[in-house]
Amino acid sequence: MALPPAAPERKLKHRRSIDVHVYARGNGLWEVDAEIRDTKTRDAKLAGGLRKAGDPIHDMLLRLVVDEQLNIVEAGSETRWMPYPGQCDDHGDAYRALAGLNLLKGFRAAVKERLGGSLGCTHLTELTQVLPTAVIQAFAGEVIDTREDSEHRPFQIDRCHALRSDGEAVKLFYPRWYRGKQDSATTSLPSATRASETLP
């Protein structure tokens, strides 16, 4: 994979940062704090007044409480910096509507239906899109079993290009669950033997 070359004379104008922290409460529930922040390298004249370079244009927090089945138990948002004070945050915390959704079962479509367009904030709604995989990363190895020797197929198989069940990564690291063509020399060997022979 190769990136387009960066121009030596390029100048940073805008930065958007997204930060997601996932915390275990210790009672079977988890908190997800997702923040989005936009800053500029120049002063910006906004409808609500002048915003100095480096001061946030947007600074927003979305918090979910989820259970170990990825059901959203509680949800809410906070807008700390916004271009239209008193307007951007005047949605009566529409993001409470996320409660009752499941992060893995039609989540993104349900968010669009409940909070798309003028029903919510463009930036907070966009922020929801990164939450399913962020929570999966937090749950991996703690709530979700990702081991090859598990009784059940590891959760991550067939959820991305690299870990497709007929691909080389699954053949190497999860041979028991490999569904591609077998080499004639290894077909008769136990999966554990094949794994030890093919791992670097």
From TrEMBL:
Pfam family membership, one: DUF2889
Highest taxon above the source species: Bacteria
Full protein name: DUF2889 domain-containing protein
Organism of derivation: Piscinibacter aquaticus
Lineage, broadest ranks: Bacteria, Pseudomonadati, Pseudomonadota, Betaproteobacteria, Burkholderiales
